[in-house]
Design goal:
The complex is a heterohexamer, with two copies of chain A (97 residues), two copies of chain C (118 residues) and two copies of chain E (118 residues).
Chain A: E1 2-5, H1 14-21, E2 28-30, H2 45-54, E3 57-60, H3 61-66, E4 77-79, H4 81-90, E5 93-96
Parallel strand pairs in A: 1-2, 1-5, 2-3, 3-4
Chain C: E1 2-7, H1 16-29, E2 33-39, H2 60-69, E3 74-77, H3 78-84, E4 95-98, H4 101-109, E5 112-116
Parallel strand pairs in C: 1-2, 1-5, 2-3, 3-4
Chain E: E1 3-8, H1 17-28, E2 34-39, H2 67-70, E3 75-79, H3 80-85, E4 98-100, H4 102-110, E5 114-117
Parallel strand pairs in E: 1-2, 1-5, 2-3, 3-4
The chains are: A alpha/beta (97), C alpha/beta (118), E alpha/beta (118).
Chain lengths: 97, 97, 118, 118, 118, 118
Amino acid sequence: MLHIVSRSPFSDDSLKSCVRIAKKDDPILLTEDAVTGVMPGSAVASLLQDAMKSHAVYALSADLKARGVDRMLDGIKVVDYAGFVELVEQHKPMTWL
Amino acid sequence: MLHIVSRSPFSDDSLKSCVRIAKKDDPILLTEDAVTGVMPGSAVASLLQDAMKSHAVYALSADLKARGVDRMLDGIKVVDYAGFVELVEQHKPMTWL
Amino acid sequence: MKIGVLVQEGPYNHEASDSAYKFIEAAMAKGHTIQGVFFYDDGVYNVASKMEPPQDDRHIAKRWSELGAKGVDLIVCVAAAKRRGINPDLIMPNSRISGLGQLSEMCTEADRLITFGD
Amino acid sequence: MKIGVLVQEGPYNHEASDSAYKFIEAAMAKGHTIQGVFFYDDGVYNVASKMEPPQDDRHIAKRWSELGAKGVDLIVCVAAAKRRGINPDLIMPNSRISGLGQLSEMCTEADRLITFGD
Amino acid sequence: MAKIMFLNRKAPHGSIYAWEGLEVVLIFGAFDNELAAVYMDDAVFSLKKGQDTSELGIKGFIQTLPVLEDYGCETILVEKESLDARGMTADDIAIPVQIVDAEAIANLMAEQDVILPF
Amino acid sequence: MAKIMFLNRKAPHGSIYAWEGLEVVLIFGAFDNELAAVYMDDAVFSLKKGQDTSELGIKGFIQTLPVLEDYGCETILVEKESLDARGMTADDIAIPVQIVDAEAIANLMAEQDVILPF
């Protein structure tokens, strides 16, 4: 299963719930405002670093660029929309609203 | 100034930001989903208890009833819409979206 | 007191619209004057005239229009409305389309300005 | 693969609508079939035919309609639409109004069902 | 036939999501699907005993919740951690449900064909 | 004349709030008001250097941010705690602002006639 999170992890609890529920090795894709979470040194860095021990964590490039996110935690993988589609080919998607 | 918070304090950061910014003695009114925070023993109980040391905290009765909130932290004051209007008569309102 | 109201969310999807309406009702019952209601962002959908909610549900647009009939100035933001397909032919009686300047005026003239959004 | 798409938010107010569109574009470019796009809740506003966004902005309804012209089935939830004042006269060409049964069918027939909301 | 899960995370009444998450069950139940509903995070309030929406002037949940079982959604899971965080217990829940931990939800999720979030 | 503060808390692009919070400045600046803008919580990303929205196909902020000063909004406060929590520093901010603590924001707020949240 592919877990898609679109809301900012600073103001919303969806990333936290996703990480709590997601099964080991399920990938997590950050889109829209959720990509703000990947900057190093933030209040959600440890949540994401822990998540990366059990999950591949992706961030959508169009959304990263739109928000000027110019640095990332080690281990975050960047995908474009074609990569997003590939993830959906490989896994059933679930969106955390 | 009257601080109005309408979003759930469990999923959203608006109550936390409101409490951080509100000046001593400014009242805080919880409406809509924010009233879910007043139940005793919850994860936001200490945030509200701390807030009540510096602020009067109100909750809107129509919203409490709609969500079946049948028990509350000590010190929370319940107001109806007429009471909401009175708070706005006494203070300039600011809504935490 | 003169109270101005800003509504930033659409009907049914968010409680903001209901909360604004109930607040206005209570304020008028206490003798306050509603300086105006400004619908911004998705708020412009509030007075869409073609709404047909289920019979056992509230009719949000009609409710606003009835408030307008009582003299409350209902102002729909022109830019937000155009973008969303709301034009003068598609809004309820007793509401009007105008610009953000009206909101600025409301801020200057009202004793209180209260926002309902999400 | 056959991919179904559920859109739960309206245009301009939330990125969900843009994200859905970009995802569909990319999926089609990879040769996937879009089983349909179901507009639910505020999502029904996406194909409002009277939209007039600023000239330098994207025209979301037109973009959806063009996708419909390419054969993508654009389905607007009838109950959500009625409630919000969206009727058959007010939706874009190549979109249609139908019931939640269509979403159920999409869930059964598509290989993947992806939701965009907020 | 598909295995479909409705994953509810939003508080009731503040937005229409929780309500629409019940509406879908009414329709999906008429088709030959295997349905499950999960209530976690703020959505546990959708199942709270004693909800009275008459003052808000909107339709309540309490009358509608039985549709879950009546319409063939026999698996209803509530996350214990979400209850705990909100100061709630099994006694607060208005209908028969299974109170489970995150792992049980994850396991049921993994079996689904489609998950629809509300 | 009124003292009006725009209090921005939402992330840019995911919803239109941040954008509309800039649009109001364009209009309000034409009137004789004393304007101030606060950026806190996720809204600090609205001021982030290097935003490029071309792939999203939406208008960017970077070109528009100077409207704040050009249109008479001379006081622009950014909350330090919000920057810290997001791993950002003064170097990340695209326009001249004052980086302050919560108390400074509270003090400026207390002087306002109206606060409009976005």
